[in-house]
Structure formats: C-alpha cells, structure tokens
Amino acid sequence: MMNFSMKSKGFSLIEVLIALVILSIALLGVSALMATTTTYNSFGSHVTEATTFAQDRLEELRATPWVNLISGADIRTGSTGINYTRTWTVATNVPGNLRTITMTITWNDKTSHSISLLSAITQ
After folding, report:
1. CA 31 from chain center: how many Å?
2. DSSP letter assigned to residue 6
3. Which of 51, 77, 96, 103 could, after both became Cys, cross-link 117 (CB 3.0–4.6 A)?
4. Is 6 inside any structural domain?
C-alpha cells in the first residue's frame, strides 16, 4: 500500500482563486484612486495656469503709467487649449493716490471656475 501524507505541499485551486479575488478588489480601489488623482491634478494645473495669467496682467498694469490705468478684459489660451477670460477693474480710492485692481479669471473645463486677485497701486 501507498503511504499518503496528510500534509499539503502547496496551494489548492480554491486558495489561489480567493487570493485572486482579494487582489482584484484591491486593484479596483487603486484604479479609482488613480482616476481621482488625475482629475485633481488637472484642476490644480488649471488653477496654476489661471493664477499665472492673472499675475502676468497685474505686473503689466503695475508698469503702466498712472494716468493710463483703465479697466478691461481679454482672453488667454492655456497650454491645454482652455480659454481663460481675464477681467480687471481699476478703482480710485478716496485718498486719490491709491488705486485698487481687482483681477478675475474665469475658465470652463467641465464646470465653470473663477478666481479673483486684488492688488493696490500707489502713485
């Protein structure tokens, strides 16, 4: 007669299948996390680009002669093809030698977004 050992020396098919199911569930969670991360990275890139466009225009306005400071608007196209609308409003404050510039940048990727910056310029 053959002597069969009761100790197993490997994995059964059921154990391998259970391990694969657990691994698949874990990988699905990671893939959802990757999709969310990609979305937020894209939004962060758009905010950075919009802020850079706003700061560029504010620097141009600071270099403009005092009497030529006027409100206005324009459109800039970003590196990803998104159009950013810049609108700035120049207001003269009570002392007379201080002007404030409110810069608003709006863009639309899947939804509308907007940021505003406020700057003060003295004569």
Report:
1. 20
2. S
3. 103
4. no
Residues in contact with 91: Cβ distance below 8 Å, sequence separation at least 6, in sequence order: 99, 100, 101, 102
> What domain range is 33 assigned to?
13-122
DSSP, res 63: H
Q: CA 102, 100, 77: angle at the middle one, nearest 5?
A: 30
pLDDT in tens, 60-75: 999 988 888 899 999 9
For the chain, percent helix, then strand, then coil, each to nearest 5? Answer: 45, 30, 25
Would the pLDDT of 95 be above 80? no
Tokens of 106: 């709006």
pTM (2 d.p.): 0.71
Beta strands in 2-78 (DSSP E): 72-77
Q: Which residue has the higher pLDDT, 97 or 55?
A: 55
Q: How many domains does the chain have?
A: 1
Per the DSSP assignment, residues forming a β-bridge with 99 are 92, 121
